[in-house]
Amino acid sequence: MFSPLNYVVLTAVLYALKEGHLRYAYSLGFTVDEMQRLIHLSPDDLFFISQVSSPFLSIQVNHNNLCHILDRAKQEENHLRLIERAIKLGASHEILNEYFGLNSRDVAVRRLLLGVTIPSGRKFIPDEKTDADIWLHWKKYRPVNIDSLSALNIMMQITEALSSPENNLSLTSVRNRIVLFEKTMPEGRKPHG
User: Fold this and answer.
1) Longest dimension (CA), the chain
2) Which residues, other chains included, contact 4 with Cβ-Cβ below 8 Å and sequence gap of 6+?
3) What is the rounded CA–CA span in Å between residue 133 and residue 158?
4) pTM above the 0.85 mark?
5) How confident is the model over 7-40, as pLDDT tens digits?
6) Per-domain residue ranges for the chain?
């Protein structure tokens, strides 16, 4: 019977030993004598050992580490979804760089993979009604730090709420209007942290 655990561990250890990474084998609990014997295994020996039904390893789950890794994976997934959402809503290179650290090449590749094209030429400028709606939404939910990811999330919600096939409203347009509002808003009317 084939023991995938034996085979996978042995090939990984053999590769590490051939590359001179003894610490990897030590970290798995192999002794110097065992490493010396492993390094001289032939392909037939490796095949034989992988066919042995009794595993020579035991696996122990570090529950705290696993939980932490799973949490980080979920955070990363949420982060990637936020980036995709921003791109689909028409975020500019500047926005994607400022909030997510993406360079022009990263942005171009992500847009290509998502099938998003940005029209060239003059950008859409919201009419007075849309402008007023953007302001009302922003005023209602405005965070203290307008450069935070939570602020960007609010800007995306505004874009989603107000965009339609007729107005071609993008996240970039919404953010540009909000930045303009913030610059012209008297200091006394801005919320303080």
Assistant:
1) 80
2) 50
3) 9
4) no
5) 888 889 999 999 999 999 999 999 999 999 999 9
6) 4-51, 63-114, 128-189
